[in-house]
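Sequence design from tokenized structure. All designs in this work follow the same two-part layout: the structure record, then the generated sequence. An example of the structure record is given first.
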């Protein structure tokens, strides 16, 4: 069985700096972070890109590239409304209790 920890740590390190530039951070729920990173490493191994574990791939590249993590720039208006990304891996920087944030469907924006 492959040790996924090095890749999870690398993604965490890299993405932390990316989302910081756009007002987001990793959720303080460390268990959720570990769970979702585990899924993303598995998706990356299978499909050569860390696709979102919470959104369905269509097979169309132009659409699927919009759900490669972190996908926040493609869904900014929607996620800003929720103050979290769809999976909840990232939240607005000022969020301290992510459990209070609800998923709102895109058409609910
Ligand atoms: S919804 Fe969150 S976890 Fe999923 S790809 Fe987008 S930023 Fe990553």
């Amino acid at each position: 069985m492959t040790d996924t920890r090095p890749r999870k740590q690398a993604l965490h390190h890299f993405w932390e700096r990316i989302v910081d530039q756009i007002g987001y951070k990793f959720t303080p729920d460390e268990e959720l972070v570990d769970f979702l990173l585990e899924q993303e490493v598995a998706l990356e191994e299978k499909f050569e890109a860390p696709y979102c574990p919470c959104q369905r791939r269509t097979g169309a590249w132009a659409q699927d590239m919009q759900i490669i993590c972190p996908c926040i720039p493609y869904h900014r208006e929607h996620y800003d409304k929720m103050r979290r990304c769809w999976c909840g891996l990232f939240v607005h920087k000022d969020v301290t209790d992510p459990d209070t944030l609800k998923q709102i469907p895109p058409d609910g924006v």
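The two ends are 42 Å apart (CA to CA). We note this feature because it recurs in several other targets discussed in the main text.
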